[in-house]
C-alpha cells in the first residue's frame, strides 16, 4: 500500500518556467490538499479538493493552479515560477468525515532560481 | 479567520515529561489535531480531540478545552526519537479546507 506519492521529490526551476507536481493516493480518499512549508511558517494550505472534479482555494493560492480529473490524483501547477515559490510542497489526503487523520506524501523540494 | 499559537521551541531530557501548548482563535471548528514531523520527513498524525478532555495514545496524550480555547500535547517518558516538530491543527470542516496548522514547536530531547 503506497499511501500518498508525490513526484518529483526534488526540482530546480528557473524564474518564469512552469511545472506540474503530481500527487497520487491509493486509499480512495475523497479529500486531497496541497500545502507549502517554509521555515517558521508551518504548513499553509494552497488549494484543496473535496472530490473528483472539484477544487477550491486555500490561504495562499496565488501563482498556483490545480486539477483533480481523477479521484486518486491531484495536480499542482506553477505557470510562471518565482523565487518566492521556493518551498517544500506537501500533498495530503483524507476521508470525508471529521475526526479523521490526513495522510501526507514525502514532499517535493522546489527551488526557483 | 483563525489563528493558532504554540511555542517555537521546547527542550527536555530523556525520560522526562513535556507539554506543548496550543492556543487558538476561531469562530468554529470540529476538533484539534496534532501532527509530528521529523526533519526532512512528512507530517504524521498523532491525535485528534473532538470533545473537551484528554485523549491518550501510548506515551502521548492530547487535551482540549473549548471554553479556554486551549489544547496541549503531553509526551511522557521522552526518547531521543521524539525530537521533532509538533504541529497543532484546527479542523475547520470540508468547506474551509479542513486542517489549519500552527507554526509548529521544535522539540529537542537531550540524553
Distance between the termini of chain B: 41 Å
Rg over alpha carbons of chain B: 13 Å
Q: Can you write the helix and strand succession of chain B as a string?
A: EEEEEEEEEEE
Largest interchain contact: A-B, 28 and 24 residues
The largest β sheet of chain A comes out as: 7 strands, mixed
Shape of chain A: globular
Stretches of chain A where pLDDT falls below 50 for ≥5 residues?
A: none
- What is the element string of chain A, with H for helices and E for strands? EEEEEEEEEEE
Please tell me how large the radius of gyration of chain A is.
13 Å
Structural class of chain A: mainly beta
Shape of chain B: globular
Q: Could you tell me how far the N terminus lies from the C terminus of chain A, measured between alpha carbons in angstroms?
A: 36 Å
Q: How many strands appear in the DSSP assignment of chain A?
A: 11
Oligomer: heterodimer
Q: What is the number of helices of chain A?
A: 0
Q: Can you give a write-up of this model?
A:
The complex is a heterodimer of chains A (113) and B (111). Chain A is an all-beta fold and 113 residues long. Chain A has strands at 4-7, 10-13, 19-25, 31-37, 43-49, 56-57, 64-67, 73-78, 87-94, 103-104, 108-112. Chain B has strands at residues 3-5, 9-13, 18-25, 31-37, 44-49, 53-57, 60-65, 70-75, 84-91, 99-101, 105-110. In chain B, strands 2, 4, 5, 9, 10 and 11 form a six-stranded mixed β-sheet that branches. In chain B, strand 7 and strand 8 (70-75) form a beta hairpin. The A-B interface holds A 31, 33, 35, 40-45, 48, 50, 56, 58-59, 90, 92, 94, 96, 98-107 and B 8, 30-31, 33, 41-45, 48, 50, 87, 89, 91, 93-94, 97-104.
Amino acid at each position: 500500500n503506497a499511501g500518498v506519492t508525490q513526484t518529483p521529490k526534488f526540482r530546480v526551476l528557473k524564474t518564469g518556467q512552469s511545472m506540474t507536481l503530481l500527487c497520487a493516493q491509493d486509499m480512495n480518499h475523497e479529500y486531497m490538499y496541497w500545502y507549502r512549508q517554509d521555515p517558521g511558517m508551518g504548513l499553509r494550505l494552497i488549494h484543496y479538493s473535496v472530490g473528483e472534479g472539484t477544487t477550491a482555494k486555500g490561504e495562499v493560492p496565488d501563482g498556483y493552479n490545480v486539477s483533480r480529473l481523477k479521484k486518486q490524483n491531484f495536480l499542482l501547477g506553477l505557470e510562471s515560477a518565482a523565487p518566492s515559490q521556493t518551498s517544500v510542497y506537501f500533498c495530503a489526503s483524507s476521508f470525508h468525515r471529521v475526526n479523521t487523520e490526513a495522510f501526507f506524501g514525502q514532499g517535493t523540494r522546489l527551488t526557483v532560481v | 479567520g483563525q489563528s493558532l499559537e504554540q511555542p517555537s521551541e521546547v527542550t527536555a531530557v530523556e525520560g522526562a515529561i513535556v507539554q506543548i501548548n496550543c492556543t487558538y482563535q476561531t469562530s468554529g471548528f470540529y476538533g484539534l489535531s496534532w501532527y509530528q514531523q521529523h526533519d526532512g520527513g512528512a507530517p504524521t498524525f498523532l491525535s485528534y480531540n473532538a470533545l473537551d478532555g484528554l485523549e491518550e495514545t501510548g506515551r502521548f496524550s492530547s487535551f482540549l478545552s473549548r471554553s479556554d480555547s486551549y489544547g496541549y500535547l503531553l509526551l511522557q517518558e521522552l526518547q531521543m526519537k521524539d525530537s521533532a516538530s509538533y504541529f497543532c491543527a484546527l479542523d475547520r470542516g470540508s468547506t474551509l479546507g479542513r486542517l489549519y496548522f500552527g507554526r509548529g514547536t521544535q522539540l529537542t530531547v537531550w540524553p
